[in-house]
Specification:
This protein has a single domain, classed as Thiol Ester Dehydrase, Chain A, CATH 3.10.129.10. The chain contains 7 helices and 7 strands, in the order E-H-H-H-H-H-E-E-H-E-E-E-E-H. 34% of the residues lie in helices and 23% in strands.
Length: 247
């Protein structure tokens, strides 16, 4: 698996997950990758390779015990981080260094696009003028039916790209409904192409659609309905640790 840590511009033209356009924060600030983030990406890439190797290893019990001891020793030496500062996703009023840190956190740690997240594939996302395009290759870790991607991961990928596409509305919302149509099996170990676009905005409702292809074959398509965030309720919910922010 390639080392992604040397590719600072893997998301082009926007900040996925924040809901404001990149220009609102300053493109340079949003795309900047610190030395610490490069190092975190390298460490995550190494862990990713370990996870893949363990998923299909023929190691003996003794070898696996040695691996477990070594991983435990490394894990025990990893310092725990301080809690992130609270920034509500989609809060356009917070144009600050804190908001930029939040956008970097989402970019680095997302379970699908996060290069510093060892469980992310990671997915490569590019923002175009009126849509987004993404590519990803999923291995055995994501298997459902033999040789095919688990349908739950297909749905999760759609939620990710549809959530990115909604920023073209100039608003940010939470997923209200996700409908997936599975057209054919989604293969493992092949490059998959996802495309998502904004369809329309009706009051607080944001509708987006997406497709998933393997080569020329349509594997699935989806519609996502997002509901604009009530920022005050969202902030209160996050600070309290629960509740609904849609109303």
């Amino acid at each position: 698996m390639a080392d992604e840590s040397a590719s600072p511009g893997f998301i082009d033209g926007n900040v996925f997950g924040v809901g404001a356009t990149a220009n609102a924060f300053g493109v340079d600030a949003v795309h900047d990758v610190t030395a610490e983030e490069h190092a975190a990406r390298r460490a995550a890439s190494a862990v990713r390779r370990l996870i893949v190797a363990l998923s299909a290893t023929s190691a003996s019990i003794e070898e696996l015990d040695r691996i477990a001891d070594a991983v435990d020793a490394v894990a025990a030496g990893v310092p725990s981080g301080a809690p992130d500062e609270l920034v509500v996703p989609g809060d356009f009023s917070v144009i600050s260094a804190t908001a930029i840190r939040q956008s970097h956190r989402l970019r680095e740690r997302s379970p699908f696009i996060g290069q510093a997240n060892p469980v992310a594939p990671p997915m490569q996302v590019v923002f175009t003028e009126d849509a987004i395009e993404a590519t990803v290759t999923l291995g055995l870790l994501f298997e459902g039916p033999p040789g095919c991607v688990h349908g739950g991961f297909v749905a999760a990928m759609f939620d990710e790209v549809l959530g990115a596409a909604q920023v073209h509305s100039g608003k940010a919302g939470m997923t209200g409904r996700l409908t997936v149509h599975y057209r054919s099996p989604t293969p493992l170990n092949e490059e998959l192409r996802l495309a998502a676009r904004l369809v329309r905005v009706e009051g607080r409702k944001i509708l987006c659609t997406a497709t998933l292809h393997a080569g020329e074959r349509l594997c699935a398509d989806a519609e996502g309905l997002f509901v604009t965030i009530n920022l005050d309720k969202m902030r209160a919910m996050l600070e309290a640790g629960g509740g609904s922010a849609a109303g």
